[in-house]
Specification:
583 residues; mainly beta; six-stranded mixed β-sheet; 3 helices; globular; NUDCD1; nucleus; CS_dom; HSP20-like_chaperone
Length: 583
C-alpha cells in the first residue's frame, strides 16, 4: 500500500512578496567573553570516520546546549569530564561556568572508539547524558533555574553497546508512571553495503520508566531500532511518546524491538492483476479523467469513494485504499463524478477548480499511474520543446529571454541531488503514517521554540527560509508554518564557510556562524524612524531589515552556537562568547 502522502501547506500571510533585501547595519553588537578553565571536550574525527555521514553526525556536532525551560542558560562538557552551566543575568558581570555534574572516570581514557559527550535537557527537572563511549545516564537536575547551585543526581545508568550521541529526549507521565524517551544516533559499519560507503545509520528509540519498582530505583527499559542510509537532518520523539518524526535524504524503517527482528506481515494490499500500474489518466485544461483498475466481480456497492477539494480516496470494501492522498491541485467536488466501466475499471472525472494549468500527477507522490497524452497535446509539447533540439543555442534571438544557461547558475541556486523525505512513524505500530517529499526544500536548522512542543525545523522554500512546527495532535496538517525569514534561504547558501544556523524563539532574528570567527545576524523588518525612498520605484520605504556582522576575538574554530530572544552564545575550544542582540 502506498504511504499516505501529505504536503507542507505554506501560510501565505507569513510571506512578504515585497521584501527587497537586507541593509548592512554598522551598529556594533556588544560582545562579552568568558575564558574557560579547561578546554571543551572536543573529539575530532579519526581516519576510520571518513564518510560524509560521520562529518554530519559528529564533525558538525553542536557542543553547546541551551535550556528551553530557563532563558539565557547554556551547558557544555569540558575536557575534565564536567558538565558546566553558564546562566546570564547581567552581561557586564558574567561569572565563571558552574559545575553541575562530573563523569566518574575520564571518557577520553577509555579504550576503543569514542565519540563526543552529548547532553539533552529532557524536562525542567531531568537531563540525559552520554559519555561518548556507549553509556547512557539519566540525571535528576531539580528545577535548574531555582537551584542552579545544586549538582545533578544520576538516577539510571546503562551501557548500550556501540558509542552514540543523543539527538533528542523528553519526559512525560504514562499511566501515572514517569517515563523518559531518548533518541540515540550511531554510524555503524555495514558489511552488507558493498556498493555504498560501507556504513549504515541507526536510530535507537529508548523508553525508560520506573514501573518495575516505584518506591525503589528500579527501571524498565524498552529499545526500538531504526535503520537508514543517511544521517537524519531532524529527528524527535512526539510528546507522550506517541510517535517519532524523521527527516532524512534516505528513508528509515524500524528493524528491531528489544533485540528481536521485526517480522514483516504479509501484504494486505488488493491484487489487481499482475501489474505495478493500477490507474491511467488523461487531462484537458478543464478536467482530469482517472481510470482505476478494479478486481473482478467488483460492484457499485463495494466502492468506497471520498472526494474533497484537495484530497481523493478510492477503495474497494474493507481493503486498503487503491488511491489515497492529496491531489495535485484543487478540484470542484460537486462537478466531479465517478462510474464503473465494463466491470473492470472505475472512471473518475475531476473538474479542475482553475482552468489552464496542466497537472504533472494526480495524487502527490503516487507513481502507480500512467499518463496518456492525446495527439494534440503531444504536438503542442513538441513545439514548446523544439528549441532544445535546435542547432543554435538560441534559435529565436528576438526573444526577450533566451534559454537558461546552467553554467551561469550560482552555487546557491543548486539543490542537493537526493530528495529528502519527512516521515512520521506511529509509536505503537512502528509504521509510517505520514510522509512528505521535501524535494528541493533544503534543510537549514532545527530549534526549540516552546519546551512543551517538539523542536521546530527550518526549510528553504525558493529564496526564503520557512519555520515549521510539528503538531502531531492535529489530524491533517501536522506540520504548521509558524514564521518566515525573508531571503534567508538564498543568503545562507552563499555562505560557503557556514557551520551553524539558528533563530530566536520569538522569531525576531536568524543567525549564521562560520567555522571561524564571523557571525551574521538577520533581523526581521522593522519600521524606520526617518523617511526613506526607493529610488528605482519612487516610493517611500516603511520598513527595513537589518543585517549585522560580528567578528569574534579568537582563532579557535566555533564548536557551539545557540540563540535566545536577547542573546547569541558562541562556544569555541577555550572561550564562550555572549552577544547581546536585543535589549
Amino acid at each position: 500500500m502506498a504511504l499516505p502522502n501529505c504536503s507542507l501547506k505554506v501560510n501565505r500571510e507569513l510571506l512578504d512578496p515585497g521584501f527587497e533585501s537586507y541593509r548592512l547595519s554598522l551598529d556594533s553588537i556588544p560582545t562579552y567573553n568568558v575564558e574557560l578553565d579547561a578546554a571543551v571536550a572536543e573529539v575530532k574525527l579519526k581516519d576510520s570516520q571518513y564518510t560524509l555521514d560521520h562529518v554530519r553526525a559528529f564533525g558538525m556536532y553542536n557542543y553547546l546546549h541551551i535550556d528551553p525551560w530557563y532563558e539565557d542558560s547554556v551547558y557544555f562538557v569540558d575536557s575534565k569530564g564536567r558538565v558546566l552551566n553558564l546562566t546570564v543575568t547581567l552581561d557586564t558581570a558574567l561569572g565563571k561556568p558552574c559545575e553541575m555534574f562530573r563523569f566518574e572516570s575520564d571518557p577520553s581514557s577509555c579504550e576503543g572508539e569514542q565519540l563526543c559527550a552529548s547532553l539533552s535537557l529532557t524536562s525542567a527537572t531531568w537531563a540525559t547524558l552520554s559519555d561518548g563511549t556507549g553509556k547512557l545516564t539519566l540525571l535528576r537536575t531539580s528545577k535548574r533555574g531555582e537551584s542552579s547551585h545544586i549538582k545533578w543526581e544520576p538516577m539510571f545508568s546503562e551501557r548500550l553497546g556501540e558509542p552514540f550521541i543523543i539527538v533528542h529526549s523528553l519526559a512525560h507521565m504514562l499511566s501515572h508512571v514517569y517515563t523518559i524517551e531518548v533518541l540515540l544516533l550511531r554510524v555503524q559499519k555495514d558489511p552488507s553495503d558493498t556498493k555504498g560507503s560501507g556504513f549504515s545509520i541507526s536510530l535507537e528509540w529508548i523508553t525508560v520508566d520506573n514501573s518495575a519498582g516505584k518506591k525503589e530505583k528500579k527501571y524498565r527499559m524498552k529499545r526500538r531500532m531504526m535503520k537508514g542510509k543517511s544521517v537524519p537532518h531532524y529527528t524527535a520523539v512526539e510528546p507522550r511518546g506517541k510517535g517519532i518524526i524523521v527527516a532524512s535524504e534516505k528513508p528509515f524503517a524500524f528493524t528491531e524491538v528489544d533485540g528481536l527482528p521485526l517480522e514483516e506481515p504479509p501484504a494486505e494490499d488488493m491484487e489487481v492483476e499482475n501489474s505495478d500500474l493500477i490507474y491511467f489518466w488523461q487531462q484537458t485544461e478543464e478536467d482530469v479523467t482517472v481510470c482505476v483498475r478494479l478486481p473482478e466481480g467488483t460492484t457499485k456497492d463495494d466502492i468506497r469513494f471520498k472526494l474533497t477539494v484537495d484530497c481523493l480516496r478510492v477503495g474497494v470494501g474493507d481493503h486498503a485504499p487503491l488511491l489515497n492522498g492529496q491531489l495535485f491541485a484543487p478540484v470542484d467536488p460537486e462537478a466531479s463524478t465517478w462510474t464503473i466501466k465494463d466491470d473492470k475499471s472505475l472512471e473518475v472525472s475531476l473538474q479542475k477548480r482553475s482552468e489552464g494549468p496542466l497537472w504533472s500527477e494526480v495524487v502527490l507522490g503516487d507513481r502507480r499511474g500512467e499518463y496518456l497524452m492525446s495527439d494534440e497535446q503531444k504536438s503542442q509539447l513538441q513545439q514548446r520543446l523544439s528549441y532544445l533540439t535546435a542547432e543554435d543555442l538560441n534559435p529565436n534571438p528576438e526573444k526577450d529571454k533566451p534559454p537558461c544557461n546552467a553554467q551561469e547558475m550560482e552555487d546557491c541556486d543548486m539543490f542537493p541531488e537526493d530528495s529528502s523525505t519527512l516521515m512520521r512513524f506511529d509509536g505503537a505500530t512502528l509504521k509510517p503514517t505520514h510522509v512528505v517529499s521535501l524535494g528541493s526544500h533544503q534543510f537549514l536548522f532545527s530549534v526549540h521554540i516552546d519546551p512543551s512542543e517538539m523542536p521546530a525545523f527550518c526549510l528553504r522554500h525558493d529564496v526564503d527560509a520557512l519555520l515549521w512546527q510539528p503538531r502531531p495532535n492535529q489530524d491533517n496538517d501536522i506540520w504548521e508554518h509558524i514564521s518566515t525569514f525573508n531571503a534567508l534561504g538564498y543568503v545562507q547558501a552563499s555562505k560557503r564557510d557556514k557551520k551553524f544556523a539558528t533563530c530566536a524563539p520569538n522569531f525576531s532574528y536568524a543567525a549564521l556562524c562560520e567555522c571561524l570567527r564571523r557571525v551574521f545576524i538577520y533581523r526581521q523588518p522593522t519600521p524606520v524612524d526617518t523617511v526613506l525612498f526607493n529610488r528605482k520605484q519612487g516610493r517611500q520605504v516603511g520598513q527595513v531589515a537589518k543585517q549585522q556582522v560580528a567578528n569574534l576575538d579568537t582563532n579557535d574554530p566555533v564548536l557551539g552556537f545557540r540563540a535566545t530572544n536577547e542573546r547569541l552564545f558562541v562556544l569555541t575550544a577555550n572561550n564562550l562568547f555572549v552577544l547581546k542582540v536585543n535589549n
